[in-house]
Amino acid sequence: MKTIINATETPFATAPRQEVLARLLSVITESLDEDKAENVVVLDLTGRAGFADRMVIATGISERQISAMAQHLERRLKEESLARPKVEGDQGSDWVLMDAGDVVVHLFMPESRELYALERMWGGDFDVAEEVSVDETEQ
Fold it and tell me: Taking the mean position of all CA atoms in its chain, how far away is CA 19?
């Protein structure tokens, strides 16, 4: 099950960018689903970050599962000629980061996902700031 919050260079240079992004996300989420990733969330970063348009966050139950998910995903993206992701932390870590160009993927152990709380940092309330008038701060 995946949740989408807020709704690169590829060989598909003639394809519209949104189609390529949709295909990239489809391959990523399908791969994670096949590997039994839990709590898959897709965050829309359009207009919020310059490093990617989407962020995918998923949980694995062991470091071994997280490493396998990263390896399978990397292989699928290369096979589909969608991306050659840069991978950090795939050698036995509680957090693996994959940069697939327009999409970054974070694979976490449950404790690390809770600790770093990327959904809260990049989720729906990211642009909302509390307004405080000068008069209120002086009292």
Answer: 18
The 3-state secondary structure of the chain reads CEEEECCCCCCCCCCCHHHHHHHHHHHHHHHHHHCCCEEEEEEECCCCCCCCCEEEEEECCCHHHHHHHHHHHHHHHHHCCCCCCEEECCCCCCEEEEECCCEEEEEECHHHHHHHCHHHHHCCCCCCCCCCCHHHHHC
Can you list the domains of the chain with their CATH numbers?
2-138 (3.30.460.10)
Cα-Cα-Cα-Cα dihedral of 86, 62, 6, 126, to 10°?
-80
What pLDDT digit, counting tens, does each position of 68-114 carry?
999 999 999 999 988 888 999 878 789 999 999 899 999 999 999 99
pLDDT for residue 17: 82
Q: Does the global pTM surpass 0.85?
A: no
